[in-house]
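**User:** I keep going back and forth on a fold encoding question. It is easy to fool oneself when nobody else works the same problem. Could you pick a protein and write out its sequence and tokenised fold? Could you put it straight underneath, so I can go through it closely?

**Assistant:**
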Amino acid sequence: MSLKTFIAKPYARMVTKAVMRRAQDPVATQLCVLRQLVEFGGSTVFGREHKLHQVHDHAGLVQATHLRDYEGFRPYIDRIIAGEKHVLWPGQPLYLCKTSGTTSGAKYIPITQHSLPNHIGSARRALLAYIAYSGRAEFVGGKMIFLQGSPVLDKSGLIPTGRLSGIVANHVPKYLLKNRMPSFATNSIPDWETKVEAVVGETMTEDMRLISGIPSWVRMYMERLLARTGKRTVREVFPNFSLFVYGGVNYAPYRSSMETLIGGSVPSVELFPASEGFIAYQDKSHEEGLLLVVDNGIYYEFIPTSELGKPSPKRLSLTEVEVGVNYALVLHTNAGLWGYEIGDTVKFVSLSPPRIVVTGRTKHFTSAFGEHVIAEEVESALKEAMDNLPCEVAEFTVAPQLTPSDGGLPYHEWFVEFAVPPKDMQALAAALDAAMRKRNIYYRDLITGSVLRPLVLTPVSRGGFAALMKARGMNDAQSKMPRLANDRRYVEGL
């Protein structure tokens, strides 16, 4: 046992115990966060405009701020880029996190001296929680690979700018530097396909014990690794591989194909990071949901999804939420985001401590006929169908087909890239359709009412999604294929 492994276990227990003490009293913890936010934010341009210094509780916060997406913050961000200080948070941001997703191009999310530790520290907490509950710390004594964006940053005005994972890569703790891979030079390669080949070359002979990244990109790395080494499984290349860390998407649709590549199951830890702040992480493998980070610079509000689109939707605090209800997530952060609609939907599976599951995106759904199918429904339906009709899915997305070429009824079209196809494609389509009818009564009624025909399953050739994403400039380790859309924007070109 290495010294790092020996020290990690008692340290993990100590940190996790302190975190859980605050999580068991989440309302009081959140109130402390709120008071800290308004204390710092009250003197800023935004704070003076919205009288944040008068806010003492949730009701006051709701009265002082209104809901905004990124476009609502763009005028303030533009002022920051132009060099103005104290706009949303005291001083200027340390970084601007560049991400895509708006109708008008890239988003630039501030990362401040106060919010940066949230991103780094919460990921660290997740690994420590795993050590604490599992008693396994062997991975800290070997190499760890993090598939992420380039650490080479541009500038917006005078502020360093890049992808979140690239920014965080510039703040790797010293105790991890010798263990962490790939090298800075390899991590800086801008083209993903070139980069993954270089990563394979650097890592294939190392004692790799932890692999982290978005499942679809990790799967590509593993496929290239096996092709390069001639081995059948990742475990043959890395016998001590013991932990998979992922975030950004639900792992369930990928699990079967990943475990085939790995050569069996491997413990995993799920993270819920976002450019706007680190929101939650899996703190226990045997309990459903991710532990909401309530003590690290983010104050949360929750809007029932049934309220979305209303002029004045209900804005609930942690005291008012219920288990099993879908909520749109709203953040107030120590990066200076106030009433920020992040675009994710969640539901609680536990309140003390607060644990959530991510159910989808507010803008990623299929409701061309009023059915409002969400990501949670399509992902769980696929898992059910795969359990009954074994196959392995590499990637998929769902889109409505409003005007079929045959002139028949419209339908939901499932575009699926298989790692291992099913023996009977039609049987899988029927199983998917049956699973969807169970999960969404509106979809079921549209089928039985002859408004829609049963879903159509369209196989996508191997590498098809990766090629499409590359063609659209989404060929990097942080890009994700949306599960759903209300039109066919994501499937054009497949």
